[in-house]
Amino acid sequence: MRLLALIGCLLLGPIWAQELPNFPPISVQATERDGHVLLSAQFSAPVSQAQAFSVLTDFDHMAEFMPNMSSSKVISRVAQRLMVRQQGALSLGLFTLALDSEREIEVHQMDEIIARSLNASQGPFSSKMLLQGQEKETLMSYQADWQPKSAFLAGLGKSYLQEQVVQQFTAMQKEMIRRSKIRLASAPQGM
């Protein structure tokens, strides 16, 4: 019976992932200061802190659930530091901007993830994600600092960047919920 429930979850997972419970919308703010774009975001998911952390750090499978990402791979791992390479593309109307990023990721237990760009082809970038487990959900707070290398990138606008961050965190939130449902369906049932 558990196997049947698990198979059902795997087949219906993408459908369930489309429906998010009534959570507050993902809140994203973007400001510009001294040539830097500063991003701040907050969101939550009805999953344990361990489940949220698992999705946020699943770099080898991230391209499977993140929009605009074609590949994501951990290229090295030493203790709590990972080197990650990700590729993708952003559609900008008639133009497509190819993205190729190498980042150093530092994880602190299951409550903090710090990232820093290594190749900085679009400009230096750093971010910090804080996770806080609550009784029935995990709250996530994100801060990022990006210094665009070109006027074209800087001209994308705060609203476009906010939209991209909302899309990314919505995808992560959906994946957290999908994995949580699979976990619940595969849990031993009472006799």
TrEMBL record:
InterPro entries: COQ10_START (IPR005031), START-like_dom_sf (IPR023393). SUPFAM superfamilies: Bet v1-like. It comes from the Bacteria. Residues 46-158 form the Coenzyme Q-binding protein COQ10 START domain. Belongs to the ribosome association toxin RatA family. This is Coenzyme Q-binding protein COQ10 START domain-containing protein.
